[in-house]
Amino acid sequence: MFADQPVISSYIANYINKEYSQHDYNRESLVSVINTTLSQDIKKYQDNSMFARFSLGKYGIRSWIKRDGYQEYFIVNNKIMNEFIAVIPKDELGLLIKKTGVSFCNIPEEIILKKYRGMIRSEAEKDFSVVQFVSVFIVHNGTQIITHKRSKRLPEERLQDEYSVMFGGHISEQDLSSIIHPFELKNNIGFIMRELNEEIKISNFEITPVGLLYDDSREISKQHIGLIYSVYLPNNSYEIGEKGFLLDHKFESIESIKHRIEDFENWSVLVINNIDKIISQGGSCG
After folding, report:
1. Partners of 138 in the beta sheet?
2. Sequence-separated (6 or more) residues with CB below 8 Å from residue 197
3. Which of 49, 69, 88, 176 could pair covalently with 45 via S-S, beta carbons 3.0-4.6 A apart?
4. Which CATH architecture best describes the domain 78-280?
C-alpha cells in the first residue's frame, strides 16, 4: 500500500516489483518508465491530471494540494535560463528614458545599439546592475485587448498568478545585434515575428511601434525594460502558443480591465493608463 503522501518514483518501482514479482521488472527501467509516464500525463492534462509533481522525482495525487496544502513543483526550463539575452547597464538607463512609465517614440535607438551587451539570462536575473530588454506586444481589435493569466508553470515565479495585457519575452543578444533600428518594422519583421509567435499565433494583423516601458516600483520590473508594439488584430482570431503557461485568455474591454485593475501586474496597469495613446500611436518611431 502507498502512504497517503508524495513518494519518489523508485518507491513506486519497489512496490510494483514486490506486488508483481512474477514479472521480474528491471528496477532502473521501471523507474524511468514511471517518471516518463507521470511527467507526460501531467504535461498533457496539466491541472486536469490526476497526478502532480511535488518535488523532483516525487509524485502524488493532485487532490492532495487542496486537501493537505502540498505545493506543486514545476521544472524550470534550463534552456530558457541559459539564453544569451540583451542587457544595458542600469546606470546608462537615463540615456534612454527620462521617467518611469511609458515613453512614446523619439527613442534614441543609437544609444540602445551602442550601450547594450549580451549576458546569460540566469546571471542577469541575479545582477541588479543591468536591465534586461524584453519585447512587449499589446494585441487588440481597436476596442478590446487580449488579456491572460500567467500560470504557476511560468519559469519566472514573480509573475505567476498575475493577469497581464501583454505578450512577449526576453530579446536575445543575437536579435538585437542584427537590428539597425529597433523600432523600424521593415527590416526587423523577422525578429518581431519570432518574439510574438513565442506566446501567441495570429495572422492578418498590423504592428505599430510605440516606445519604451519601464517601472522601478517593483523588483522584477526594475530589471526589465520593454520595447512596446501595438498589434491590431481585426479578425479576433488567435491561438495561444504557450499552452499551460497562459490561462483564462480572452478579448476584454478596456472598461472591464479597469474594473478589475487590481488583478493585473504593474506593467499592465501602466499600459492601461496609456492605452488610448498606445492603440492610436501613428508609428512615428519608424
Report:
1. 230
2. 241
3. 49
4. Alpha-Beta Complex (3.90)
